[in-house]
Amino acid sequence: VQLVESGGGLVQPGGSLRLSCVTSGFSFNNHGLSWYRRAPGRERELVATIYGFSVGTYYADSVKGRFTISRDNAKNTEYLQMNSLKPEDTAVYYCNVVIKGNRYWGQGTQVTVSS
């Protein structure tokens, strides 16, 4: 199983970024996928989840209405569209999948929101 994130960077408050997570090594369509983040000095936080077969989504209250999680089953890729970014969104963002009770993580991509 491999998860490779990209798309992070430095953005001003109010700006947008789209994160991507290219996956391989498992049956993509069947599994739910998530984005987590870890800010300096804080615990890892679940940001959003999209369930297998896109039957539904979950968002943390802190990002609801600003972030959108999606998936492209043809490309085995998960996305996180982040709009109206705030300084408190600054963190390393990780994609995650749980397969048969085992958690798999990407290497993370840094998002910095600062003027």
Short key terms for the protein model shown above:
115 residues, 7-stranded mixed β-sheet, mainly beta, 4-stranded antiparallel β-sheet
The count of DSSP E runs of length 2 or more, i.e. the number of strands, is: 11
Q: Share of helix among residues?
A: under 10%
Task: Specify the structural class.
Answer: mainly beta
**Radius of gyration over all CA atoms, rounded:** 13 Å
- Tally of individual helices: 0
Topology:
Blueprint: E1 2-6, E2 9-11, E3 17-24, E4 33-38, E5 45-50, E6 57-59, E7 67-72, E8 77-82, E9 91-99, E10 102-105, E11 109-113
Parallel strand pairs: 2-11
Antiparallel strand pairs: 1-3, 3-8, 4-5, 4-9, 5-6, 7-8, 9-10, 9-11
Provide a concise account of the structure shown.
The chain has 115 residues and is an all-beta fold.
Characterise the protein shown here.
The protein contains no helices and eleven strands. The protein has 115 residues and is mainly beta. The strands form two sheets. Strands 2, 4, 5, 6, 9, 10 and 11 form a seven-stranded mixed beta sheet that branches. Strands 1-3-8-7 form a four-stranded antiparallel beta sheet, with no helix packed on it. The termini are far apart. The mean pLDDT is 96.
